[in-house]
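Lecture notes, part 5. Sequence design as translation. It can be helpful to think of inverse folding as translation between two languages: the language of shapes and the language of residues. The source text, in structure tokens, appears below.
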């Protein structure tokens, strides 16, 4: 069956006009331009020389990490669109929380929405993200994450997932897809073939899905099939190995059992395409990640990504070199002409599905675009979801609600906002919010020795969301103690009321099982901090249902 016949089938479901556009566009591209179509390159910062370099390469798409300057973003991306061989596709990770647009509506991330556990809240949140994304020209999101939060020490799944329960993940991921694709943004389910049972980070190492075939079919297999039934347009093939499946086909696979999915014909073509029947677009995960670079050299792995069944290569540290390697692989026959045509036409088919027939179709009118951001009704509804998300996991001493009369003097151990994509993160507003309530807030220092005579309450405020290259997220007692070895070993809750507030990672009870109180809030956004204070003061009810096992399987953590 030809690629053009496949484009008429779900999830593309293109009509004659769209298929004809794909055919004519493909036929009109040179070999270099065809290779360019299967690359999505990254654009960060304001380096105009780098942007000019990317324009000259004529990629099929770009992923932009947006600045707060709308006019600047519009100019840069318009210039890029004018330079490319076919209409540009602009991508983003529409995950909410700190991934929300800085000039847009603050929207909860996936784990916060899983805590709210209202599929309409998830669908509406995805709709808000999609409408604001379209205003910037973004038409392809690398979300939702359908990984399973099984290994609690994983720093890369955590707050990015919809939790640890497959039923909950399924219903919220479906709502996420519906909210995006009904509003003109293609959704992507990731990370194929499934992350979350290995507590390492594929940005740093090739991770492993350790499940048996039966276990996988009952969990990830079920999830991916359901997303395909919903019509999700793309899958992200990650740098994750699935030994059980490979060994079912190659009993003596040896090292091949641990080949990353992104360069595995068995996982991309045999399992994903042939057995699960996925007909959409397959995009690799970012190719600069350690999970791929630890496997092989770039000049080898980049052509292998396409030859192994992925249709798009995501990012490149050296795009000139990598495009040349892919072109040479086509000329040599390593990548067949049929495989190249299939990949390029799926990319063009995605553009056609999104209505990008002309370069003028990429961006809406400027005034229409500006009016799409932070609409009052969107902000209001998003705030109602945020208000429902702070989760009181533990309060064995009935500390909450707080009272200025009994807890006036607060010692705040501020761990700061940690975000690897934001080198200059804003400070927590929590101290000022508490002062506005009438509390006396002292920020902890290495010289302070907290006693009941000086303080009425100790609060640990931690804000580490699950993001790349973190290895593991844990309660770093020595860092919190200002580097003092002895303070790092001292615990305050034996003689002072103490609570941990996590504006991110939900598993701090593993390192502090005896802390009397824990609040999980899943995001460090300012509106989330305000919502936590409202709950602590008793003006709003805490959520009491956690989307993960915040006790990390520890019996003593319940006491």
């Amino acid at each position: 069956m030809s690629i053009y016949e496949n484009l008429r089938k779900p999830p593309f479901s293109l009509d004659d006009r769209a298929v004809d556009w794909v055919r004519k566009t493909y036929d009109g591209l040179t070999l270099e331009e065809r290779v360019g179509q299967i690359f999505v390159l990254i654009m960060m910062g304001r380096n105009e020389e780098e942007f000019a370099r990317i324009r000259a390469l004529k990629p099929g798409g770009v992923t932009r990490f947006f600045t707060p300057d709308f006019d600047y973003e519009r100019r840069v991306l318009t210039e890029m669109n004018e330079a490319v061989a076919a209409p540009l596709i602009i991508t983003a990770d529409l995950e909410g929380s700190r991934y929300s647009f800085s000039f847009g509506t603050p929207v909860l991330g996936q784990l916060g929405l899983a805590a709210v556990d209202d599929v309409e809240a998830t669908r509406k949140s995805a709709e808000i993200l999609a409408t604001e994304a379209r205003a910037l020209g973004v038409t392809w999101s690398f979300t939702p994450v359908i990984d399973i939060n099984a290994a609690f020490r994983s720093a890369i799944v955590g707050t990015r997932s919809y939790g640890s329960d497959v039923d909950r993940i399924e219903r919220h991921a479906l709502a996420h897809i519906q909210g995006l694709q009904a509003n003109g943004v293609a959704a992507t389910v990731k990370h194929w073939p499934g992350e979350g049972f290995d507590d390492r980070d594929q940005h740093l190492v090739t991770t492993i899905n350790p499940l048996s075939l039966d276990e996988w079919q009952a969990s990830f297999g079920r999830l991916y099939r359901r997303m395909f039934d919903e019509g999700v347009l793309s899958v992200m093939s990650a740098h994750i190995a699935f030994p059980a499946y490979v060994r079912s086909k190659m009993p003596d696979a040896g090292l091949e059992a641990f080949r990353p999915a992104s360069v595995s014909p068995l996982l991309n073509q045999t399992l994903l395409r042939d057995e699960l029947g996925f007909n959409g677009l397959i995009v690799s995960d970012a190719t600069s990640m350690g999970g791929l670079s630890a496997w092989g050299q770039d000049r080898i792995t980049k052509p292998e990504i396409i030859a192994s069944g992925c249709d798009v290569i995501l990012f490149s540290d050296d795009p000139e070199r990598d495009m040349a390697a892919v072109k040479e692989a086509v000329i040599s026959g390593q990548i067949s002409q049929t495989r190249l045509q299939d990949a390029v036409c799926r990319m063009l088919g995605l553009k056609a599905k999104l209505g990008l027939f002309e370069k003028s179709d990429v961006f809406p009118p400027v005034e229409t675009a500006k009016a799409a951001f932070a609409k009052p009704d969107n902000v209001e509804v998003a705030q109602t979801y945020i208000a429902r998300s702070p989760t009181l996991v533990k309060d064995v001493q009935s500390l909450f609600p707080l009272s200025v009369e009994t807890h006036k003097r607060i010692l705040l151990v501020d761990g700061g906002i940690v975000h690897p994509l934001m080198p200059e993160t804003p400070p927590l507003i929590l101290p000022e919010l508490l002062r506005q309530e009438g509390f006396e807030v002292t920020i902890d220092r290495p010289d302070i020795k907290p006693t009941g005579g000086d303080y009425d309450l100790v609060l640990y405020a931690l804000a580490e969301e699950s993001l790349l290259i973190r290895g593991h997220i844990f309660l770093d007692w020595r860092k919190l103690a200002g580097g003092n070895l002895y303070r790092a070993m001292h615990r305050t809750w034996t003689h002072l009321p103490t609570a941990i507030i996590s504006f991110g990672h939900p598993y701090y009870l593993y390192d502090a099982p005896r802390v009397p109180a824990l609040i999980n809030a899943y995001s460090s956004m300012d509106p989330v901090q305000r919502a936590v204070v409202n709950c602590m003061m008793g003006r709003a009810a805490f959520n009491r249902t956690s989307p993960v096992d915040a006790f990390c399987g520890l019996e003593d953590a319940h006491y």
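The translated text above is only one of many valid answers, since several sequences can fold into similar shapes. The mean pLDDT is 95.
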